[in-house]
Amino acid sequence: MSIEFVGLREINGPLIVLDGVRGAGYGELVKIKVGGSERLGKIITIDGERVVVQVFEGTAGISLENTGTVLTGSPMEISLGKSMLGRVFDGVGRPIDGYGEIYPEKKLDIDGLAINPVARDYPHDYIGTGISSIDGLATLIKGQKLPIFSGAGMPHNELAVQIARQANITNGDYCIVFAAMGVKNDVADYFRRSFEETGALSRTVMFLNLASDPITERITTPRCALTTAEFLAFEKGMDVLVIMTDMTAYAEALREVSSAMGEIPGRKGYPGYLYSDLASLYERAGKIKGMPGSVTQIPILTMPNDDITHPVPDLTGYITEGQIVLDRSLHGAGVYPPVSVLMSLSRLMKDGIGEEYTRDDHKALSNQLYASYAKAQEARSLASVVGEEDLSDEDKQYLSFAKLFEKRFIAQQRAESRSMDETLDLGWEILRTLPRNLLDRIDDETLDKYYKE
After folding, report:
1. Which of 13, 201, 307, 402 lies at a CB distance of 3.0 to 4.6 Å from 376, suitable for a disulfide?
2. How many angstroms separate the CA atoms of 407 and 424, rounded?
3. Which sign, positive or negative, has the C-alpha torsion 52, 57, 58, 59?
4. What count of other Cβ atoms lies within 10 Å of the Cβ of residue 95?
5. Are residues 58 and 18 part of one domain?
């Protein structure tokens, strides 16, 4: 049963405060009547009979005296249906593509339901992205959460679109849920146009929260996206890849709301519960035993000043199963995608590669490429001190290998999609530029089969 209150005690940024409220529930949906229009809000704090409501559309134009506030008695829900595929929504799940409302098959709480750890199925099957530096060296596994750490001015938006367009999720019906938070209008247009032109929009559900939209809507956007993903995965049996960009914009919104509430700040002003809040999003990835669907996450975040120890990437790294790191020096050299191979890893990769899933030489090849590239970086450091002409013949061979590795393996065209076999064959082609005696991470049997001088 809904209850209406008239008048507010306080307005503070994106928050309103009510007194004399009894029986309210945390997370309860609230409707705020402003003139002839209605805005949505959510109860985020209850202190006795005082409640704090987070207003999604902002508090501009709201009056203390005659504003009507309706407590609906239910949590915030999103209308869900398979007809959402091919549609574009705002940050709170309302259609913005001009095609009208969707036919809802179900409504679910945007905060979702936690997956019972005992019911989780261990991820195995790999997801092909068509990008060699990811598929070959930091393989994405179905049900995994694998973030991309980027920086201002780097091509993470292009990479997100390319992954969404090229993703090859094997053994099932699949789709993409794409959530953009705090993006500018031109970036939002780029996302929509790219998906429409390539035909990827037909199997994509897109949520767009613009930089000009209210800050509190940004906090809701990933929750709407993940609830949609869970519905499509666990009720419709689809394998869902969720791409969320930019998680730093989400954390900034969380910090602003926390500051308005007067909470004690933690590191760099972020709320002390930032870790648990991010975990409540990231841990919604996974597979459930006995169910065909899965939710895989690729959260993208920009590191302020390229600082990987910043709270957002730092805490994200603790929660997720690896990371893909973009390198500014590679970007400056014109390499796309500028993946920093030595700083990137996928902790679940070992369980989704090999003869059963990709190819029998994948693990050994990956290990050798890592090791050889690491030695090449050491040779580069030494060359910067003594000069390249004074390096040993072996170090010079490693330098030549590194240049070829970056130019041909890491770098690829924005529209280029490589199969797993093409990626592995290319890795062998580059390794053959090194003498066989330097390939100490590969057994003789595998070398006899794949290494041909």
Report:
1. 402
2. 16
3. negative
4. 15
5. yes
Tell which of 35, 50, 74 closes a domain.
74
- From 288, 313, 347, the end of a domain falls on 347
pLDDT at 9 over 90: no
Q: Is residue 399 part of a domain?
A: yes
Instruction: Show the domain range for 205.
Output: 78-347
Cβ contacts of 284 within 8 Å, gap of 6 or more: 112, 115, 226, 229, 230, 295, 297
Buried b (16+ CB within 10 A) or exposed e, 39-77: bbbbbbeeeeeebbbbbbbebeebeeeebebbbbeebbb
d(C-alpha 123, C-alpha 177), whole Å:
19
CATH number of the domain that 52 lies in?
2.40.30.20
pLDDT(453) > 60: no
Q: What is the pLDDT of residues 34-60, one digit of tens each?
A: 877 888 888 888 888 899 998 887 788
- 225 & 292 share domain: yes
- Identify whether residues 120 and 234 lie together within a single domain: yes
- pLDDT (mean) for 406-427: 94
What CATH code is carried by the domain that includes residue 280? 3.40.50.12240
Could you tell me which residues come within 8 angstroms of residue 302 by beta carbon, excluding any fewer than 6 positions away?
150, 151, 152, 154, 156, 246, 248
The answer to whether the CB of 216 falls within 8 A of the CB of 253 is yes
Q: Tens of pLDDT along 195-228?
A: 888 888 889 999 999 998 888 889 999 999 999 9
- Per-residue model confidence as pLDDT tens digits over 323-375: 999 999 999 999 999 999 999 999 999 988 988 889 999 999 999 999 999 99
> Is 357 within the bounds of a domain?
no
